[in-house]
Amino acid sequence: MGPEIVVDMQGGIADDLPDYVREKVAAALVRTSRPVLWVHVRVVRHGDPSRSEGVTAHGNVDLGGRPLLVHSAAATPRAAVDLLVERLRHRLERLPRGHRPRRGHDDGEAPGAGEPEIVRHATNSPVPLPVDEAVVEMDDLGLNFHLFVETLTGQDALVYRDGPTGLRLSRASGGPDVEGSHSVVVTVSPQRPPLLDTAEAVERLRVTGLPFLFYVDADHERATVLYHRDDGDYGLIDPAAR
Hints:
The longest helix has 18 residues, at 77-94. Helices cover 22% and strands 31% of the residues. It has helices spanning 17-29, 77-94, 131-141, 198-208, and strands spanning 4-10, 36-45, 55-63, 66-74, 118-121, 145-149, 156-160, 168-171, 187-189, 195-196, 212-217, 223-228, 234-237. Helix 1 runs parallel beside helix 2 (77-94). The strands form three sheets. It has a five-stranded mixed sheet. The chain has a four-stranded mixed sheet with strand order 1-2-3-4, covered by helices on one side. Strands 6-7-8-9 form a four-stranded mixed sheet, covered by helices on one side. It has two domains: 4-94, Ribosome hibernation promotion factor-like (Double Stranded RNA Binding Domain), CATH 3.30.160.100; 116-241, 2-Layer Sandwich (SHC Adaptor Protein), CATH 3.30.505.50.
């Protein structure tokens, strides 16, 4: 018996869509050997007639306690679902096969040696980008969040999949949105990310259970993202790692 696939719909979508979603998602899930505990898919038809891609789809898959998030946008509900499933299939195929044993528990080391490691690397965007291009780059890379330097403000910023529009933007300085900074529909977070050192960030990510944490590094005062890697370690996207 497969995992429960919960489908939510908003905005006047045909009643036969949930069965279509469940069939397509179930077919994609056979591409992973990892345990899938549950799946939640939300399909929303937006009322803004100026949007060429007026339907968004959001998927959240629990892979043995590790969330995998996917997002898509298209002109019709079925097209949005098809694109969502295609991205889900691509993400599942990229996951490492099987489970890596926790270090320190199968080779005689002390239990403390099995703590996750931090794998540090620079942001994927080598040059400043406007918000709209950062969203496109995030989609092209198949990511759920993307750290970049915003062209207009010169700030470190993070675009990620969340909020009522399906996309949220956070800037290192917080504050209200900047007029003319983007044409894509995003929810802008007015909150400034917390100032933390790496140890504090790891503890906050562990306690909150979030898939990633956007914060300002106390050592160099640049915005940074700490996240759960598929291999059980932490990834640290750090502009100062160049």
